[in-house]
From TrEMBL:
The lineage of its organism: Bacteria, Pseudomonadati, Pseudomonadota, Betaproteobacteria, Burkholderiales. Residues 179-321 form the XdhC Rossmann domain. This is Cytochrome oxidase I. Residues 15-66 form the XdhC- CoxI domain. It comes from Hydrogenophaga crassostreae. Gene3D superfamilies: NAD(P)-binding Rossmann-like Domain. InterPro entries: MoCofactor_Util/Proc, XdhC_CoxI, XdhC_Rossmann_dom.
Amino acid sequence: MENLDLTVLRNLLQWRRAGQKALLATVVRTWGSSPRPVGSIMALCESGAVVGSVSGGCIEDDLIYRYSRANTPQGSAAIEGISHDIPSGPPERVTYGVTADEAHRFGLPCGGTLELLLEFNPEVAPLETLVQTLTDGHMMERHTAIATGEVKLVPASKPQALSDDGTTLRNSFGPEYRMLLIGAGQLTEYLATMALFCGFAVTVCDPREEYRGNWQVAGVKLDAGMPDDVVTAFNVDRRTCVIALTHDPKLDDLALLEALGSEAFYVGAIGSRRNNEARRARMIEHFDQTEDSLAAMRGPIGIYIGSKTPPEIAVSVMAEVLALKNAVPLPRDMQVGPAKEQLQPGSGTAAVCFSGQRTA
């Protein structure tokens, strides 16, 4: 499953190539609580088809009602103020949730307000270039002149926050986030499935035929190479995470070392605290590593939710990966090591589950 922005843009391009009217909606500003962050996009076709999201659904419904022919009964008179068609012309701004009644009507959180920029019938050529660039794995900024709707594409080296100075809307788009998993065991199947649904492109590397032969998750690329060679050839960038899941130092350690020398936003390995300490000691003793050079290697991986089974462990790991991807700092008591230390007898800390209830 590709990332949501690329899915939106690809569908928008398909509609416009077919000669259908369509609009692109971008969240450009929010006040208070909002269901979708600034920079979120959705596309609406004149047929009523929608891809992407700018809210929990009610705002999408309103846009469909206002701009879709699917909501115009044949032969009926136009309703005043409602076009039921996607117009031509420059972009328009629309704000939802200004009043308490609107916030309730559109399902916005208490006090939530958001502003959208609607671009009508985007030109095909810039869309083709943008979609192809993202498909090729490169980042791009899309600059939209608000007075005319003219689009300019600018290559980018890193993601930037959306910018709207009243004259130009600048929104950066990146290729898919990628996840490289070392080992094709049962835990990997659960984690790969979750990553696919979260929009990651997933590759699983395992030179062991007995593990690859039982792989059952569709949409995942399997690689039989040695893990360190695969990491080297993977062109790891800041939108990539590398996770070792074999428990076998011959497969995990060299791959982790290669990943640590890259721009990967997440590098980690499965294992207990004791196994993690032993791994670090091996790398320091045999591979000339230091505590500083190993600082980015996460382990034990995941957030502490008391997980024991493979699917629960996968949930824990995926949550930590998403937190780092979204630049959300994790409280210390959610990290596996510190959390388990608090639960040790004699720690002086009552066990507290993450719902806030005391369990001891």
